[in-house]
Amino acid sequence: MLPNIRIVLVQTFHPGNIGAAARAMKTMGLTDLVLVNPRQFPDAEASRLAAGAEDLLEHARVVGSLGEAVTDCVQVVGASARLRSLPLPHYDEPDAMARDLVEHAAADPVALVFGRERSGLTNDEIRLCSHQASIPANPEYGILNLSQAVQVLAYEVFKAWRQRPGSGYLPQRPEEERAPSREQLGHFHDHLTRVMRESGFLTQPHARTEAQLQALFARAQPSRKELSLLRGLLSALEPQGK
Questions:
Q1: How far is the C-alpha of 7 from the C-alpha of 30, rounded, in Å?
Q2: Could you count the other beta carbons within 10 Å of the beta carbon of residue 181?
Q3: Which secondary structure element, helix H or strand E, spans residue 48, and what is its range?
Q4: What is the pTM (predicted TM-score) of this model?
Q5: d(Cα 140, Cα 147) in Å, to the nearest integer?
Q6: How far apart are CA 121 and CA 11, in angstroms?
Q7: Angle ∠(109,142,63) on CA atoms, nearest 5
Q8: Order of strands across the sheet with 90-91?
Q9: Is the peptide bond before 42 cis (omega within 30 degrees of 0)?
Q10: pLDDT of 12-38, one tens digit each?
Q11: pLDDT greater than 80 at residue 197
Q12: Mean pLDDT taken over the chain
């Protein structure tokens, strides 16, 4: 689904904005970048500001017109800070736009279009879009840099995608915060039982005590790192050579 979501930059003046936009895209899982008549590309400044997203720049397509950039798209959303008189459906909230865009992207290419840094999209370019979208901002100072606008809308698209049933998205968690496996828990409880018996805490098999301790640790839900610390403590309490 995400590969069907295209970011189109129209006549970008500063090459660095192309690199920063590519970086914004990559953080949100978007990879399809199309440039319409950029003033200068490729460019070292674009690569520098991509900061790890140079692969998107390497695969970016440069075309001569917006029409060529979106000809295969079933939905084209033009990002615009200024409301126009053209009778296009307008999204006042980016999250509503993102849900619709992701829905269409399940089967066909779609595009988010961003205009020039100073003047945005022309009326003729807006006519090539199926929808318009704006980013709510401070009415007294609602100016976003091009890459900032790409980041905001790319984030909304990524959020809409990951919240869909079946997206398969799993948030990254540090290794030490992962829950232990049943095997790891089993080894811990075996270790705990052995130490309790060797220490004299349990003088005979006592299934109730073991079950209560298992329930205690089940409620505590120790992480793998915490379980490792407990195993280390038990090992320190064991007689030497055990």
A1: 8
A2: 11
A3: helix 44-50
A4: 0.73
A5: 20
A6: 9
A7: 35
A8: 61-63, 32-36, 5-10, 110-114, 75-79, 131-133, 90-91
A9: yes
A10: 999 999 999 999 999 999 999 999 999
A11: yes
A12: 89
